Amino acid sequence: MRLGSGTFAACCVAIEVLGVAVFLRGFFPAPVRSSARAEHRAEPPAPEPSAGSSSNWTKLPPPLFSKVVIVLIDALRDDFVFGSKGVKFMPYTTYLVEKGASHSFVAEAKPPTVTMPRIKERETLLPNLLVLCGDHGMSETGSHGASSTEEVNTPLVLISSVFERKPGDMRHPKRVQQTDLAATLAIGLGLPIPKDSVGSLIFPVVEGKPMRDQLRFLHLNTVQLSKLLQENVPSYEKDPGFEQFKVSEKLHGNWIKLYLEENNSEVLFNLGTKVLRQYLDALKTLSLSLSTQVAQYDIYSMMVGTAVVLEVLTLLLLSIPQALHRKAELDVPLSSPVISLLFYLMFLVLSAIHVIVCTSAKSSCYFCGLPWLAACGVMALISALLCAIVSVLTKMFIRGSLPSKNPAPPNSGWSELDLLMVFGTVGHVVSLGASSFVEEEHQTWYFLVNTLCLALSQEIYRSYFLRDDGEPQCCFRVEQGFAGATPALQDRTGYDTREQDRVHVSSSLSEVLRGHEKWMVLASPWLILACCRLLRSLNQTGVQWAHRPDLGHWLTSSDHKAELSVLAALSLLVTFMLVQRGCSPVSKAALALGLLGVYCYRAAIGNVLFPWQQDNRDISKGIIEARFVYIFVLGILFTGTKDLLKSQVIAADFKIKTVGLWEIYSGLVLLAALLFRPHNLPVLAFSLLIQTVMTKFIWKPLRHDAAEITVMHYWFGQAFFYFQGNSNNIATVDISAGFVGLDTYMEIPAMFLTAFGTYAGPVLWASHLVHFLSSETSSGSALSHACFCYALIGSIPVSTYIILVTSLRYHLFIWSVFSPKLLYEGVHLLITAAVCAFFTTMDQTSLTKS
């Protein structure tokens, strides 16, 4: 079966989306969470157990502390406080602990919990207890986040006059879990234990209280954990911790009966001590069961999703030689008898594995819960992909063993720009294995874009000052570049080979480049670098420098609303000037009115001002103004779609298709202008400016092929994703974009608007790529090559990242750093699939026309 490389790539990405969805469903475990909602009235505390006699103690015990101060030190290792290192590095803390009443522990940060961020919520409570702790430790080399002893053991020192003065050995403190601190502070402050807490009371904190108070504290904690266990574990009655809790509660009732009878004999004390030990054992077992539930992954579903994703990536990598060939077609034979036999064997093996896993699984599994028809479909898909890979490898081996009839030309090697793109992509993928690089990924893309500009500058200067033989020259050799393109270049790009048109275009370009525009060509990379540097100052993102003031914060302050208004108006004007050049007259008018409506919308909600407007006017939701813009967005998109259909079905005019693509691009630009916050409108204007400069002064004169142009568009799209102020933190998603023009919450429109507002940078650069390749060539191979390259460069990061998060699933920062990035990668792959589908549609249009 023969497929075009664009169609093949679009199908691969669609299958990869399915694999990523299955992986995500298995990777994110079911949360251990109480079914009680915050809006419901707080439940009264559990009454004190009794056996025969009735107890009137149904309230929370009085608090142990009135105020709490938490000193949370980043990467504080336990040996920095305890032992000889503590005396050396933290002498005052050691002196304070030895002098005053305190309790010292080694708190283990058990991955993948995120206890300390929860503890920070209580920092506003007032102090009488001093808590010194660390969020995590670090290794001898300074790294942190892994599961080594140095990285998970942190000190926990509780200092208070409430505690009795006891001489202790700080060199061998007891071990507790970081999750225990939430329950301990709640009990110490007389507050209800958080319903979702999986920790247990640190008993030495309350051991100075009377026996009845101690048992009451332990009972409240075990009741809370047992309820959480009942709501999250179906077979909770068989859990050892739940059985121990029932025994403890029964013994506690007997002790209360003796206590109320005013029996102060030794029997009461011994029974109380037994109940204490029973409660502590039950707490330990319950906490361990719930903690295990938190860190329980659906490994089988993850493996199925990973298998699909890796097979797709392998197939894409093996198909590169055929996909980037001049014909842009691939032969994917699936009907061979040998391949068919392998398919059935693999299908039977996978079915057997599926039955064994699903019948022996002790915990819930998403993939096992699917209908058998759906599960068999996925297994058949995995088998088919494996057969395709085997077929491609077999053909490559056969071709490699035979002498080549068409040896590669000498000039078919990779250029310096190609090497930069390959090593840049590989370097970015490798960097995703470090949490710091994930948090600061924008720095990676800024570096790659800047390096790309320098490489383009070097290529421009070399093309201008030197001939191919190394001799100096005074102008671009555009005539030779366009009229005498090498066969290798034609195979890679698919540019039109009509010589008369090439000579005409090249001659006119040569005349233009001999004038003032040759200086624009020389200065274009530096202009792009300057634009990128300005955009970096607009929004500080990431983690390390997110707190630093930036131009965006300065503009959004109420004191600089006039400056923001001027900047927003100029940005909208530049946007119109750069976009209108390729639109039809009707679309130009709609674009102008739409951009005017964008400014009116921002003025209506109080972000910007009109020149005649005072700052103290009433503020509205801007529903009418936003819907006014939506009308023009839909109108422009409809006009562009109509032109595309007309170019495919009715007319044979190549210009109609080009105009239609540009109008669709213009509609997306107008939608982005509406959704962007006012201080981000310069990001949109600079994006259009850079696209215009690169189109006119870089891509055309330097004759880059479709693959190189695609990678450049992808890189700049990723950079502009972060120029908008986005990061790999979910908190930076601008949710307000999903409510523009909506008076009530509507799920589907809100999701679409939020996704487009977040990924506007990559989407606009991909749309510009389709228009550029369609306008520069009438052959469909360029679009096919671009679609394949876009799918490949989008698949490599998500496939590699899936392997990384699987291996790092017990990393301390798996939920705070790696998991949000995984969600971003999943959504980005979905958008890549939509882009590839659009590529394929335009490719089929070109094939139909040809």
UniProtKB/TrEMBL annotation:
GO MF, one example: CP2 mannose-ethanolamine phosphotransferase activity
Highest rank taxon of the organism: Eukaryota
An example Gene Ontology CC term for this record: endoplasmic reticulum membrane
InterPro entries, per the entry: Alkaline_phosphatase_core_sf (IPR017850), PIGG/GPI7 (IPR039527), PIGG/GPI7_C (IPR045687)
Membrane spanning stretches: 299-318, 338-357, 369-398, 562-579, 591-610, 622-639, 750-770, 782-810, 822-842
Classification via Pfam families: PIGO_PIGG (PF19316)
Domain GPI ethanolamine phosphate transferase 2 C-terminal: 516-831
The keyword Isomerase appears for this protein: no
Record keywords: Membrane, Transmembrane, Transmembrane helix
PANTHER family, A to Z: GPI ETHANOLAMINE PHOSPHATE TRANSFERASE 2, PHOSPHATIDYLINOSITOL GLYCAN-RELATED
Protein name: Phosphatidylinositol glycan anchor biosynthesis class G (EMM blood group)
Organism encoding this protein: Propithecus coquereli
